[in-house]
Amino acid sequence: LPLHRLPPLPRRDPKFWQESVTGLAIFSAMIITLVSSVHLNIGSRNRWKFALWCSSADLVIQFLALLASSCIAIILFGRCGEVKRSKSTCYPIPAQVALRLLATGASETATQARNVQH
């Protein structure tokens, strides 16, 4: 049974994207709040004995927030953990499954598999 005869992979559920956008909104609100509070608490350079240290700390916080934002975007919107279809991931196909795919057609079998209640 060649790979092109296998049923198409299921599309992601719209709830997946809704959860990702909600997570990103919550994360963004937290990052903005925390970075702003650090920046506002540092305030003017003239107030501090070690002004360079405070400015450096502010830049480090902003860099880490940007890094964390990038990581979250990759986790939420990337295809992390998704198994790509290839010979190494699809074979060997159990004999009963291969016979059923050949007998009923790949699209019917895929529809039936999605409709199974667990």
Describe the structure.
The chain is mainly alpha-helical and 118 residues long. It has helices spanning 14-42, 51-77, 87-90, 95-104, 106-115. The longest helix has 29 residues, at 14-42. The radius of gyration is 25 Å and the shape is rod-shaped.
Low-pLDDT residue spans: none
What oligomeric state best describes the polypeptide chains here? Answer: single chain
Elements, N to C (H/E): HHHHH
Number of helices: 5
Shape estimate: rod-shaped
**Helix/strand class:** mainly alpha
Q: Please report the distance between the alpha carbons of the first and last residues.
A: 27 Å
Task: Please give the share of residues in helix.
Answer: 55-70%
Reconstruct the topology from this structure.
Elements: H1 14-42, H2 51-77, H3 87-90, H4 95-104, H5 106-115
Helix pairs in contact: 1-2, 4-5
Top keywords for this entry?
118 residues, mainly alpha, rod-shaped
Give a concise summary:
This protein has 118 residues and is mainly alpha-helical. The chain contains 5 helices and no strands.
